[in-house]
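Appendix B. Chain record.
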Amino acid sequence: MKKTLSLTLLAIVLVASLGLVPVAFADDTSADINAKGIGKLVANGDGIAVLYGKGTMELSGNGTLVIKDNAGDAKIEVTGYGVKKEFPDGWIQYSGMHGTASVKGTSIRVVISGVDINLTAKGRGGAILWGHGTYDINGKTSQWGANTFSKPLTIAPAE
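Structure tokens predicted for this chain:
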């Protein structure tokens, strides 16, 4: 419970930062994994995952989920959450999540913090992972965690 609460508080701070300086995440050097490009990302673990871009994101886990639809065209389906809160700046928070989420859109941001996180993201965009677990980018599997440095990974060559 204490671990989930700490991750939740960190996610709230992170979301507040996202609203003010969303571009800063592209060059974040404190993350365990920082990837951007075109393709498919599959990740499993505990911690915080920040996903942004155009495409489809399927997630599950236990913790807090926040979503922002920048383009106004996203299809969002979330199951198994405790409290949903919508903020004036467009962010939607699902606290007490013990379920799944499906998000599809042309300009979306998703932050999930907690334990037993499983995610699949397809499309163009980026992802930043803090915590520990495994990930696969376009068929290349590796680990993210305390022993992994935050060198940017390319999902696919930029166009």
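Further analysis of this model is presented in Appendix C.
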